[in-house]
Design a protein that fits this description.
alpha+beta, globular, 21% helix, PUA domain-like, ScoMcrA-like SRA domain-containing protein, SRA_ScoMcrA
Length: 117
């Protein structure tokens, strides 16, 4: 397990999407990550209101998808306790209308690097 200080030193931003890593949780941040039985993660794009745009962190993930660049994933287990989940590839993306939120949201499918190879 890692402390927030250790994660921040590696992730290098307080935002959920860094240049080479992602922060995930189980809803504490307001984002609804979905952890699938096969070990993959459905990761919602950046932006909690309005239609999400291909800018900022979303652009980073779209570029990682195009280049097949792996991203490190850190999972928040509880306050100041993070798990390094390893490297994931952005396997696909879907930009879809979320009726409950009345907006368009990016959904990135992240697969563990070992499962993607």
């Amino acid at each position: 397990m890692l402390t927030w200080k250790e994660v921040l030193a590696k992730h290098q931003t307080r935002r959920g999407i860094g240049s080479r890593s992602l922060l995930v949780d189980r809803g504490e941040s307001g984002y609804k990550n979905r952890f699938l039985p096969d070990g993959s993660i459905l990761y919602p794009g950046e932006g909690l209101s309005g239609n999400q745009q291909p800018t900022g962190g979303n652009r980073t993930l779209l570029r990682a998808l195009a280049a097949q660049s792996p991203m490190r994933v850190y999972l928040r287990e509880r306050t100041n306790c993070w798990r390094d989940c390893g490297w994931f590839l952005v396997e696909s993306v879907e930009y879809r209308w979320e009726e409950s939120e009345r907006r368009y949201v990016y959904w990135f499918r992240l697969v563990p690097l070992t499962a993607a190879t």
